[in-house]
Specification:
The complex is a heterodimer. Chain A is an alpha+beta fold. Chain A has 18 helices and 21 strands. Chain A folds into four domains: 104 residues, Sulfite Reductase Hemoprotein, domain 2 (Alpha-Beta Complex), CATH 3.90.480.20; 165 residues, 2-Layer Sandwich (Sulfite Reductase Hemoprotein, domain 1); 109 residues, Alpha-Beta Plaits (2-Layer Sandwich); 142 residues, Sulfite Reductase Hemoprotein, domain 1. In chain A, the strands form four sheets. In chain A, strands 16, 17, 18, 19, 20 and 21 form a six-stranded mixed β-sheet that branches. A five-stranded antiparallel β-sheet of chain A has the order 1-2-5-4-13. Chain A has a five-stranded antiparallel β-sheet with strand order 3-14-15-12-11. In chain A, 52% of the residues are buried. By secondary structure, chain B is α+β, with helices and mostly antiparallel strands. Helix content of chain B is 29%, strand content 19%. Chain B contains three helices and four strands; from the N terminus they run E-E-E-H-E-H-H. In chain B, strands 3-2-1-4 form a four-stranded antiparallel β-sheet, sandwiched between helices. The radius of gyration of chain B is 15 Å and the shape is globular. The chains are: A alpha+beta, B alpha+beta. Chains A and B meet through helix 12 and helix 14 of A and helix 2 and helix 3 of B. The structure holds iron/sulfur cluster.
């Protein structure tokens, strides 16, 4: 994990002092709400339906056990004993008191955390592959690059008031688990023929009201050119991005309105004008950052040569026959291995995904007791490290294979050995109208209903995603789910629109809208029917979206609305 | 932001806001105070009283007691008409932190029943 240097620490400490003073001035009335609002938002403090909400940054989703313990402490001392992990790999606390927020920021700073740039029209927390640095299919570890970009973008004087918020995502694998094509800028790190790291820059992805898949803007940018090139993109966006209409202010709209070639030319012009001297030390900075990533030493743990490594499925099979597993436990343990354990680049290790989606629970919510428990597990078996995924789950990136049984048992105690990762009940759901001031309908109860309804039928529907947003802002990525659900307000009644066939990986695709919205209590039975229909119609090995593409919209519409309705509207 | 405030009083209305310190939903009372108990809210029968109430609210905002005051339409029983404000009044319709002893269990109710009855009433 990256360790702060004195500069990093001084910056967050200074920000805490500044915010304490700002809160104090608000409480004494020296600052009005209009004056205070932009200041609190710069520190991640929102006002929601029932209370303030503090959004804490988890840079590229990486947490230490100590940091997780601190989040548990904050949840208990300043909130209601829980926190909510988001699709931006952040955590939100839903009930802090204004006067206590400076103390929370101080507690965060004591473990190298903060809430800077988790709101406002600036470059937000940079997200990446939750398996970064450990995935068996990875070409380049994206974490040092993410940290490099974090340092470049944090409080960047030119980019503090962009036309709108700006999001980066980075992957170093051909299998994109960071949804890079749904971000303002997506970076795909790869190696060129000479073995050097180069970066494909994708621009203009995003969701919300006008969803767009990013376009390849410039392939194979050398690392030495990356920061000036990104600076040039941001500079052009800052100059030409629309400020007259917030719904048209993201770079995806600028790209659509300007056209790819013209925008590329504008960026090239800005790039040529950049003073390269300012970036003379950028590679040395990256080198320094690399040196501050403390990597655990996995070498002693009995790795086997790649050539001798059996295929992962066979290894899982062998693991399931562990002698410590009683015959009556074997079924559950095998399910957990299959759904929650992933191949690691080091053959004596695996990555463990911890589902925060127990059927009927709130997606992404975690109690302080669970946080402490996971921190303990990470300390005992996981080299102190935890990741947050954009699917609102956690990952223990490196667990020795021989510790998997112990980890499973410990997770069971915490009610976190839930074997539904990548199954339809592994639902992404935003806070929706239960908390969010922008919402038009609830998401959480719908997610809970769906998960409980499909628990018995979802087995085998691997990779079928269900995402639910409580408004058009699409924080829960409903546009890119196998089944996307968007909650709307129709004359004061919650109503849910269904899209099918979306995906967020390297073959990113927006889902197709099926037709009119349906009532809240119809959503779960509808999802159940879709899962059934898919399982009945699929060819061997076919994923949901493949079945959907092969059969087309019509039969799925019948499943959703009934034959009669479809015939009437045809 | 979705804006559910009303411009003129149809049946009746009340004034809702967030308390500056806690951020919690608070309601204007007839004596010009702010309460977390909706049953003590000042029910405004007409536009004149609503106008007067909003003047109080503006003063309270200027005095940094509350933020974001607006008028909410209520029905004959004094209940908020729109689901958004019903949720503001009752708290989240979901039981947060199900594996944790709740600190304020009075603001939550078991999901499915609460959800279904709310939807039933609205449809
Ligand atoms: S999608 Fe809408 S309701 Fe959900 S968190 Fe985002 S803004 Fe709030």
């Amino acid at each position: 994990m990256y360790q702060y240097d004195e500069f990093d620490q001084a910056l967050v400490d200074q920000r805490c002092l500044e915010f304490r003073d700002q809160v104090q001035r608000r409480l004494t009335g020296e600052l009005s709400e209009d004056e205070f609002k932009p200041l609190r938002l710069m520190n991640g403090l929102y006002l929601q339906l029932h209370a303030y909400m503090l959004r804490v940054a988890i840079p590229y989703g990486v947490l230490s056990a100590e940091q997780m313990n601190k989040l548990a402490f904050i949840a208990d001392k300043y909130d209601k004993g829980y926190g909510h992990f988001t699709t931006r790999q952040n955590i939100q606390f839903n009930w802090p008191q204004l006067a206590e927020t400076p103390d929370i920021l101080e507690a965060l700073a004591s473990v190298q955390m903060h809430a800077i740039q988790t709101s406002g029209n600036c470059i937000r927390n940079i997200t990446t592959d939750p398996f970064a640095g450990v995935a068996a299919d990875e070409e380049v570890d994206p974490r040092p690059i993410a940290e490099w970009l974090r340092q470049w973008s944090t409080l960047h004087p030119e980019f503090r008031y962009l036309p709108r918020k700006f999001k980066f995502a980075i992957t170093g694998s051909a299998n994109d688990r960071a949804a890079i094509k749904l971000h303002d800028i997506g970076l795909r790190l790869k190696r060129n023929d000479a073995g050097e790291t180069v970066v494909d820059v994708w621009v203009g992805g995003g969701q919300g009201r006008t969803p767009k898949i990013a376009q390849l803007f410039k392939p194979a940018v050398a690392l030495s050119e990356l920061l000036p090139y990104l600076e040039a993109i941001l500079r052009v966006y800052n100059l030409y991005g629309r400020r007259d209409n917030k719904y048209k202010a993201r770079i995806k709209i600028l790209l659509a309105e300007t056209g790819l070639e013209k925008l590329q030319a504008q960026v090239e012009e800005a790039y040529a004008a950049i003073n390269r001297q300012e970036f003379a030390d950028s590679l040395a900075d990256l080198e320094r950052i690399n040196g501050r990533f403390i990597q655990p030493d996995l070498t002693e743990s009995g790795a086997i040569a790649d050539a001798e490594r059996p295929v992962w499925a066979m290894r899982l099979n062998a693991l399931a026959n562990h002698s410590d597993i009683a015959p009556q436990e074997r079924k559950h343990y095998t399910e957990w291995l299959t759904q929650c354990v992933r191949e690691h680049s080091h053959s004596a290790h695996a990555s463990v995904v911890i589902s925060l989606k127990k059927h009927g629970d709130i997606p992404g919510d975690m109690t302080s007791a669970q946080m402490r428990g996971v921190a303990d597990i990470a300390q005992s078996y996981g080299y102190n490290e935890i990741r947050v995924t954009h699917r609102q789950n956690l990952v223990l990136p490196q667990v020795a294979i021989h510790d998997l049984v112990s980890v499973w048992r410990a997770l069971q105690q915490l009610k976190l050995a839930v074997s539904n990762v990548d199954l339809p009940s592994d639902i992404i759901a935003c806070p929706g109208l239960d908390y969010c001031a922008l919402a038009t309908a609830r998401s959480i109860p719908i997610a809970q209903d769906i998960a409980q309804t499909i628990e018995k039928v979802e087995s085998g529907a691997q990779g079928m995603t269900v995402n639910i947003s409580g408004c058009i802002n699409a924080c829960a990525h409903h546009h890119v789910a196998s089944i996307g659900i968007l909650g709307l307000d129709r004359g004061g009644v919650e109503n849910y629109q269904i899209t099918l066939g979306g995906q967020s990986d390297q073959a990113a695709r927006l889902g197709d809208r099926m037709g009119p919205g349906i009532a809240a209590d119809e959503v779960a039975p509808t999802v159940e029917r879709i899962v059934h229909f898919y399982k009945q119609e699929r060819l061997t090995g076919e994923r949901f979206n493949e079945t959907y593409q092969r059969l087309g919209k019509a039969p799925f519409k019948s499943v959703i609305y009934g034959e009669e309705h479809v015939a009437k509207t045809a | 932001m979705a804006n559910h405030d009303v411009k003129s009083v149809d049946v009746s209305a009340l004034v809702i806001a967030n308390d500056l310190l806690s951020g919690r939903s608070v309601y204007l009372t007839e004596t010009g105070d702010w309460t977390e108990r909706v049953e003590n809210a000042w029910q405004l029968p007409d536009d004149q009283s609503a106008e007067r109430a909003m003047k109080y609210a503006k003063t309270a905002e200027d005095e940094n007691q509350i933020i974001g005051a607006y008028l909410v339409a209520t029905d004959t029983t004094g209940r908020a008409v729109h689901i958004r404000e019903q949720l503001r009044v009752n708290g989240p319709s979901v039981q947060f932190a199900p594996h944790h002893e709740l600190i304020n269990s009075t603001t939550t109710q078991p999901l499915s029943d609460a959800h279904k009855s709310l939807v039933d009433e609205l449809v």
